[in-house]
Amino acid sequence: MAFMSFKNVAIAGIAACVPKKVVKNIEQRELVSEHVLKKMIETTGVIERRTANNCICASDLCYEATLRLFDDMKIDKSSIDVLIFVSQTADFRIPPTAPILQHRLGLSKGVAAFDINLGCSGYVYGLSLAYSFLSQSSINRALLLVGDTLSKAVSPKDRATAFLFGDGGTATLIEKRDDAGNAYFSLNSDGAGENVLKIKAGGYRYPSNIDTLAEKKYDGDNFRTDEQLYMDGAEVFNFTIREVPDDIKKILVYSQTDLKDIDFIFYHQSNKFIMDFLSKKIGIPAEKTPYSIEKYGNSSCPSIPLTMVCALKNKVNKDKKKIILCGYGVGLSWATVLLDISYCYISDVFEV
Amino acid sequence: MKRDDFFQKLREIFSEEETDLNEMTNLKDLEEYDSLSIIPLIALINEHFNKTFTAVELYRVTTVKTLMELIGLENFE
Hints:
Oligomer: heterodimer
Number of strands of chain B: 0
Shape of chain B: globular
Largest sheet of chain B: none
Low-confidence stretches of chain A: none
Order of helices and strands of chain B: HHHH
Helix content of chain B: 40-55%
Distance between the termini of chain A: 41 Å
Structural class of chain B: mainly alpha
Structural class of chain A: alpha/beta
Radius of gyration of chain B: 11 Å
């Protein structure tokens, strides 16, 4: 069982950056009727989302978020010891993006920099690693950069995904603090569900070729290539309601915390219907589960920090806040953390 | 669950408030029986009957009666 607990490590600050291009779903009428579109918007909760143009990568959004965070918090670059980049939309297949960001940000060569390829669970997995590094006496500050441009990976002619995904990049600074309280993690995986969310071709199992680039017709009137994202929405839903409420219960037991003492649960912003249903199963009121999906869609791995920045601006530092973060999706992979957010600096969401 | 309550919930999912939906109604004839309504249907069954079905299992269903058989007729009054 991958349970972990940490003392005296805290999230010190978070910044989020989104592309300035806004796509309003109600205007996307090429694929479906207005009636279906309205129903889709009501179910998924995605009114609008941000999409990156060809010049903007996830790393660029994370880079901008980091500059903003460093500037706002007056962080000395030489104080960073670790850089973790979490994304499914890295700059290149080779090399990894984290060392590129280390150089671009002007961080020291003594920084441990590496990539993690995880999606919706990636922020919590990344945090668990940052907390692990900070349990070492010589490591004082870690930078967790989490971003995706998944809108580039979907087919505009596939109704299951075309209206759902937005892009974003975030920067989270993690550091030691004597008054940070405890953090409790639960990390999980189930590769039996590898096909539920998948880009089949373009890796080394099915290398890119003319056939994988050809648009094909799937389940009814959906079209996509084998190098675009496939999502089985019903199975994602089944997986989520099977695993997530249990994982949250487990973390409450492990940390000996009562659900009523939790100030907020931040879900991965998968889909409004799914999140509403989760809250019903868990028994947490809507005012304790902030969403950002209506404005930014499902941005995959950065959706949790992006929602935190939207919801927590001007709300921390006043009193102690106990929160749960829960990411679930591609892999299948899911992870939950319970931590205190009392001393966290929250920057604004800004555009590039 | 009372049968009439179940029919009413199905009407809401499929936006068929005006239709005389009953055991003999074929779900495949409903305009909104598609991938969008399958998740609310899975949620309905999970919430009220504590059972989980895959989309493939639900797409095999034809009439409302076969859906009730899949869930288990003992669950209906």
